[in-house]
């Protein structure tokens, strides 16, 4: 597979406020915090972009990190505003989000596809006018597969149990390692690295 459009906008999904900080739905925020540290940048709230924004230069190219502060179901408002301002194509956008269909410790990357009821993805797809952005799906498990009686809406708004948090943290570390590949457009190498680790 040849190189594709290098990623220029990395979005982490979550809900604002200390009460949501450690909840499963905020896995995208957790990853973005780590990436900002790796790129030696920090977030500040930008009203025009409806979110916390961090900027970095990698090989002379500007990279934008975004944590929408709109609540999950309005994430597209922030993503759309940033993409329009910087003239990013959807193919240059990577959205990191929690994924019910993957177990804690698993991660998958894909371009396009449906939103599987994830309100953040649904709103971003509407704002960009296409599903053709990249998704980094961070496994948090599903209450059924984890033998929990919680409804899904309640499950995602609670912190992971200790035995789930550790593999989620390990997944985030694996994602951090492949970010440099994505910024160069080497999606194949990044995807292979992430998906091979799932099988170990």
Automatic annotation (TrEMBL):
The gene is pth. It is an enzyme of class 3 (hydrolase). Catalyzes the release of premature peptidyl moieties from peptidyl-tRNA molecules trapped in stalled 50S ribosomal subunits, and thus maintains levels of free tRNAs and 50S ribosomes. Hydrolyzes ribosome-free peptidyl-tRNAs (with 1 or more amino acids incorporated), which drop off the ribosome during protein synthesis, or as a result of ribosome stalling. Keywords: Cytoplasm, Hydrolase, RNA-binding, tRNA-binding. One of its GO terms (biological process) is rescue of stalled ribosome. The active site is at residue 25. This is Peptidyl-tRNA hydrolase. Its main location: cytoplasm. Monomer. GO terms for cellular component: cytoplasm. Signal peptide: none annotated. TRNA binds at residues 20, 71, 73, 119. One of its GO terms (molecular function) is tRNA binding. It catalyses: an N-acyl-L-alpha-aminoacyl-tRNA + H2O = an N-acyl-L-amino acid + a tRNA + H(+). CDD domains: PTH. It holds the Pfam family Pept_tRNA_hydro. Its EC number is 3.1.1.29.
